[in-house]
Design goal:
The protein is α+β, with helices and mostly antiparallel strands. The chain is built from nine helices and 19 strands. The strands form three sheets. Strands 1, 2, 3, 4, 5, 6, 7 and 8 form an eight-stranded mixed beta sheet that branches. The protein has a six-stranded antiparallel beta sheet with strand order 10-9-19-18-15-16, with no helix packed on it. It has a five-stranded mixed beta sheet with strand order 12-11-13-14-17, with no helix packed on it.
């Protein structure tokens, strides 16, 4: 029995009590906290490698990432990881994260060597609960922050309404709403904000309070009316996703041979009603004499009046 026990130890096998201990140790290393997750990407890094070669391009990337790391530490943040041309950081407070993001953008423009190369970064961040495990973070806040940086363009800082709520009044005044947008992985639309980091903001358009924006948007864009046979539907900017297809669970059921079970959907985004095709055979739109064909998740904005979907005569849903 002693020899057998020795063999088990040598093979690295553990007794049940030992396994429980290991699980408890791993569990103790996990901690859920509220934090702001920030992603910063170098824009056009592929161009750097094509234009300057691998060695110099990598040196340029390293210089940018070092600058971003310095600003992270300056405002109490922690660099979680760098992945190629991207840095991921964690901050205890949204105020520090947004301040760091602004300084990252400004420092990049103030660096003479980098500014001559026309280097730009885009930043996305979100504040929420995260799970800290060893030196990494996980959770919904991480996923949303990653979605925000994908929404951003060069020289932009993009965040969410939830994050703005944690900022001081002074810092909140440097932000503006970009409207509501559907974010991958989220059922409901999210309100997206841009942080204006440039010191000279006098040329920016004065923005209304969010509630006033919503009121003005409803007045400007009104409603979308859909008609199909004897059915009529009225969509508003606040309406949820409207589905069209042959399946009985759709809001508008079009039982035609060329219509897919889940053919298309309509949603209000950034001031427009947009139809997105999800069908096998495609969707065409007729507005006056203009015909637009959509296929494989193609999209079209609604004009004043016209027709959509496959069919003839009264078999086509109409809109106005």
């Amino acid at each position: 029995m002693l020899a057998s026990d020795d063999q088990n130890v040598k093979k690295g096998t553990r007794k049940p009590n030992d396994q429980v201990t290991v699980l408890d140790e791993k569990q103790s290393l996990r901690q859920q906290i509220s934090a702001t997750v920030l992603f910063a990407d170098i824009c056009g890094s592929t161009r750097l490698f094509e234009e300057y070669g691998d060695l110099r391009a990598r040196r340029i990337e390293s210089r940018v990432l070092a600058l971003l790391s310095d600003k992270t530490a300056q405002f109490g943040g922690t660099v979680i990881k760098t992945i190629g041309d991207e840095i991921m950081s964690r901050f205890p407070e949204a105020e520090g994260a947004v301040s760091a993001a602004c300084k990252m953008q400004a420092a990049l423009k103030d660096d003479e060597a980098l500014s001559e190369l026309n280097i730009a970064i885009k930043i996305g961040l979100h504040h929420g609960p995260v799970l800290v495990e060893q030196d990494d973070v996980f959770g919904d806040a991480v996923n949303i922050a990653a979605r925000m940086v994908s929404q951003a363009k060069a020289d932009q800082i993009i965040t969410t309404r939830e994050t703005i709520g944690f900022l001081s009044e002074k810092l909140e005044r440097t932000t503006r709403s970009l409207g509501w947008s559907r974010v991958r992985g989220k059922q409901d639309e999210m309100e997206i904000f841009e942080v204006i980091w440039q010191e000279e903001t006098s040329s920016l358009t004065q923005l209304f309070h969010v509630s006033k924006q919503e009121e003005l948007r409803n007045l400007l864009f009104g409603r979308l009316l859909l008609e199909y046979r004897d059915e009529k539907f009225e969509l508003e900017p606040t309406s949820k996703l409207f589905t069209i297809g042959r399946g009985y669970k759709n809001h508008l059921v079009v039982d035609r041979e060329l219509v897919s079970r889940s053919h298309a959907n309509i949603e209000f985004r950034q001031g427009k009603f947009i139809l997105t095709d999800h069908s096998t055979n495609g969707t065409y739109s007729i507005t006056g004499e203009r015909l637009t064909f959509l296929f494989a998740a193609g999209r079209v904005c609604f004009a004043r009046s016209g027709k959509h979907l496959s069919g003839t005569g009264d078999q086509r849903p109409r809109y106005r």
